[in-house]
Amino acid sequence: MARILPELLESIPEMFQAFATVLGSSAEQAVLLVCGGILIGVSMLVMGYLTAGALVSPVVPTSPRGREYQ
């Protein structure tokens, strides 16, 4: 169990080498890799925004006119 973290940290440079190999092999694969990175990045930003809103919403009071109940 204690060996997992060092193996993970050692595999990060290998991952960058694998991505560099894919980027250098052909233009189509490079475009697909960049598009995948953009999709992952955008989805992480959206999820982070929604999570931050969910965490801040109970703490920040709403404005008096924000919710009117009848």
Structure overview:
This protein is mainly α and 70 residues long. The chain has a domain at 21-54. Helices cover 74% and strands 0% of the residues. It has two helices and no strands. Helix 1 (4-25) packs across helix 2. It is flat, with a radius of gyration of 21 Å.
What letter string, H or E per element, gives the SSE order?
HH
Structural class, by secondary structure, is: mainly alpha
Tell me the helix content.
over 70%
Low-confidence region ranges: none
- Give Rg in angstroms: 21 Å
Kindly, what is the distance between the CA atoms of the first and last residues, rounded to a whole number of angstroms? 58 Å
> Oligomeric form of this entry?
single chain
Largest sheet: none
Mean pLDDT: 87
Which word captures the global form?
flat
**How much of the polypeptide forms β-strand, as a percent range?**
under 5%
Count of alpha/pi helices: 2
Number of strands: 0
Topology:
Elements: H1 4-25, H2 27-56
Helix pairs in contact: 1-2
Q: Which features does this protein show?
A:
single chain; 70 residues; mainly alpha; 74% helix
At a glance:
By secondary structure, the chain is mainly α.
